[in-house]
Amino acid sequence: MSEDAKHNCHECGGRIAYPQHAFGTTIHCPHCGQQTTLGEIYPDAPAVPNTVKTKRLPDPPEVSTTVALGEVPGKARPNLTKALVIGGVSFAFVVGISMAVFLGLRASADKKAQAELAAAQAAEAAAKATAEAAAKQVELGKQKAAAEEREKAEAVAKAVAEAKAQAIAKAAADAAAAAKLEVERKAQAEARRKERLKSNAAAMAIWDEPDQEAIRILAARLTDATLKHKTTTVNLKHDDMPDWLRTKTQNLYREEGESKGLVREIDGKFYDLRTNPAGWVQIRSAEVIQVLDEGAYLMRNDDTSGSFSISVFKLKHNGLARILNKNDRVQVNAFSAGTWTYNTKGGEVKTVPVYDPGLPVGSARDRIVPFR
Questions:
Q1: Helix 201-208 vs helix 77-197: angle between axes, to the nearest 10 degrees?
Q2: Residue 351 and residue 340: Cα distance in Å, rounded?
Q3: Are 332 and 320 contacting, i.e. CB atoms less than 8 angstroms apart?
Q4: For the segment 315-337, what is each residue's pLDDT rounded down to a tens digit?
Q5: Is residue 30 one of the residues assigned to a domain?
Q6: Domain tally for the chain?
Q7: Which of 231, 247, 230, 251 is nearest to 239 (CA)?
Q8: Does residue 21 register a pLDDT over 90?
Q9: Could you list the residue range(s) of the whole structural domain that residue 57 is in?
Q10: Longest Cα pair distance anywhere in the chain, in angstroms?
């Protein structure tokens, strides 16, 4: 008989019998399949039980360091089957517990993930709401600014319209006042003229004549005119005429001067040659010695007083130069327009005066023949 030892598995508490020489060996528990060290005492496991007497078998086989699950030397096979059944049940129990733990942990993790997802969605919704509120505030601010700008523009437009209306009204009032003053001035001037002419029966007859066609203008001059009323001929100054007659006389004087080419224009300024304007000269006789694109060279030979020698001058083209030919003799009224320098065929440099006849005004201009 030999002494066998007993060991309680620290995992499942199952009792394992083993020979004493296997003490300290690590084996798999035949009940739960977990590793356990034979003879090791654990806090939750019972102490190693007392040894029991067993019959020593002759020549016992050498025991390996690891004993097979549920196999105890000298025990019958039914014990092994029982051990295997117990071990399978224990294993299933452990697996069930593990699965329960795993599923619990999994459920906890899923719950945590769902909570985190819900928190993230809530944070995203809050951020979106904040952004939308900020955008709405910005849009409201823009709308308010636009409304204020419109109000300002409308106020400015209204002020401008009012100022314009006031200016128009003032201009109309000023024009009406000026017209009234003009009427009063004319009435006063007419009264003064009549007072001045009350001793001139012929003049007063013209003033009192209701039929304007009964008065003829025989000659119109710069400041006066010769008039015929019925059988009476009278000279009157423009200032002594009724307004309608003075205007008619002055227009006639201007038209006569234009038709004769005696009213000229140079650079937008008008000259009446009948009034001997400053800067204008009358060349009674000159001979064309060369025709140019922009005018002609002429030789002046009208001085009979001997105050200057025969001289050459340049006459600027005024639209009538086309009729000029070499050796033509002309009479010219022209404005002194400076000098002109040119080189002769012999290489001599000469400077001559330049005269500008200007352009005729009115009906005479229609008779100008273009030079080109």
A1: 140
A2: 5
A3: no
A4: 887 665 456 788 888 888 999 99
A5: yes
A6: 3
A7: 247
A8: no
A9: 3-75
A10: 194
Same domain? 245 vs 317: no
Same domain for 238 and 326?
A: no
- Is 28 part of any domain? yes
Q: 3-state DSSP call for residue 196?
A: helix
In a domain, 168, yes or no: no
Three-state SS across 278-327?
CCEEEEEEEEEEEEECCEEEEEECCCCCCCCCCEEEEEECCCCHHHCCCC
Query: In 3D, which of 18, 8, 25 has the Cα closest to residue 60?
Result: 18
Q: What is the pTM of this model?
A: 0.47
pLDDT digits (tens, 9 = 90+) for 208-235: 999 999 999 999 999 999 999 999 999 9
Shared domain for 287 and 346, answered yes or no, is yes
Last residue of a domain, one of 259, 277, 300: 259
Closest alpha carbon to 45 in 10, 6, 17, 18: 10
Assigned token pair, 85: 């059944």
Looking at the predicted structure, is the pLDDT value of residue 276 above 50? yes
Distance CA 140, CA 47 (A): 85
**d(C-alpha 304, C-alpha 242), whole Å:** 47
